[in-house]
Amino acid sequence: MNIIREVSAMRAWSRQKRAEGKTIGFVPTMGYLHEGHKSLLSASVQETDATVLSIFVNPLQFGPNEDLDRYPRDEERDVAIAKSAGAEVVFAPTVEEMYPNEMYTTVRVPALSAMLCGASRPGHFDGVATVVSKLFHIVQPHQAFFGLKDAQQAAIIEKMVQDLNMDVRIRTCPTVRESDGLAMSSRNKYLSVEERATAPELYRSLEQVREWVEQEEWPIGEILQKWRDRLQNMECAELDYAEILDYPSLQQPDLNLKMKKGQHRWIAACAVRFGQTRLIDNVLIGTHAKAETVRQTGGNAICI
Amino acid sequence: MNIIREVSAMRAWSRQKRAEGKTIGFVPTMGYLHEGHKSLLSASVQETDATVLSIFVNPLQFGPNEDLDRYPRDEERDVAIAKSAGAEVVFAPTVEEMYPNEMYTTVRVPALSAMLCGASRPGHFDGVATVVSKLFHIVQPHQAFFGLKDAQQAAIIEKMVQDLNMDVRIRTCPTVRESDGLAMSSRNKYLSVEERATAPELYRSLEQVREWVEQEEWPIGEILQKWRDRLQNMECAELDYAEILDYPSLQQPDLNLKMKKGQHRWIAACAVRFGQTRLIDNVLIGTHAKAETVRQTGGNAICI
Fold it and tell me: Were both Cys, which of A54, A61, B29, B178 would link to B182 (CB 3.0–4.6 Å)?
């Protein structure tokens, strides 16, 4: 398996593959791979001829007081995982290689970037859209795979690709969870024993919200209130946000609305801080909301 | 020659050409072609295997009080010109084809967009960068050709391509002028007889500015003052801006600075309103500033 560090070499590899008529699958990551990333790699290997995994901790998407410097890294382990998953290339450029000049250009999807994680991380999604745009131009994939754990990110990338006529198909894959329901995340390693024991409450509360919504008894305003009360009572955790929005438009539905089967597709999404560590999770509810989660212990991930 | 109106058909054509190992040249325009566009087509036909001309009057780059609706159009004539210049395809999509959904995504190069034409046309260059980004993704050219008459646009596109790692080479070609020096523009047709007689004063004043700068006697602050006085005295015309900036950074040099041979590359650029019609022109001065203009009556356009 190749480890490529230069933009020009990555582009040359992609040109060659395309000239040979091969399809390229792409899994962009910040490294420190977990089962969620593995499921993306597995989908890509299954559905394209040649898979590229990128590892790049992108400074542009971190705010000044965020965890850029302490973001976990383990390239050796990541390369071994990529290899055993069947990837052909790991693209792992330096920051200088990705940003050799002062960046003047930004790709923005402001209408999808202001809410949820964008509210507490201003500029974050501009950084994401810009770096993914760069990576798409370098890797030139036919398909790119994103996890639904970062549902807002997936919605933004899908809209960017549609709006800018980028020639790549975006595939979104179910969130992969520990057996107790905690969504896989590179940041989970920072949890203390006590925090780790509490953290599955995020997903348990999301399953409760889905049940409440699907019962079609209460308007979502009431469900939101009950859910926020529950999250605010969590031990050693501070609620950042808990929202129910239309997906993928991320617009706030009328709070007096009740779910009607087959008519809505909503996302219930939350972010909670455990000390310095901020975890996010979500579930999709309603039309086409099937198969958006898979437990580590089994189940077939169906990417859409 | 093909006239293509659909994004999917344009993309299929480009894919086919690339699969055949052909290089694609691209000349994006808003139509109503003049000698300036012809010189771009000619450079593309000479230097690539297959040339695409696009005609698209892009609503995104027009302000609410600008001339979108009255922008001149003559597709039949444009197609004939493209054909006789040796283009293989005219890509002429409708607004609905280019913007089938509400646009949420913007590509911006704010540090190069606030001055010169950007100051009096807020949002204009965001619209340009966004539509050129879309067109590049659709046409997938190896090289794209832009005229130096729109020097700020060329600087923005070059920086966008560099920052976002777009896989296309940007070529800039000299401004083509009438025999009396007036820069070719689709908007020249709106000039009255009197305005048309006055309009060459823009270029005459620019040549004067170049001479003053190259004499290295006066600081640019003084030259600017003399130049603005001259333009403000023009008949039936209103000065919008006259600036001397570093090129392509578009930063304002120290006004006390005098030119030093081989050390600077500056642009002198101005915009003047003749009634409803706004004309722009510029010259490059200093290092590598050769060959940025060519008279219709002869001369070899050397695109860089």
Answer: B178
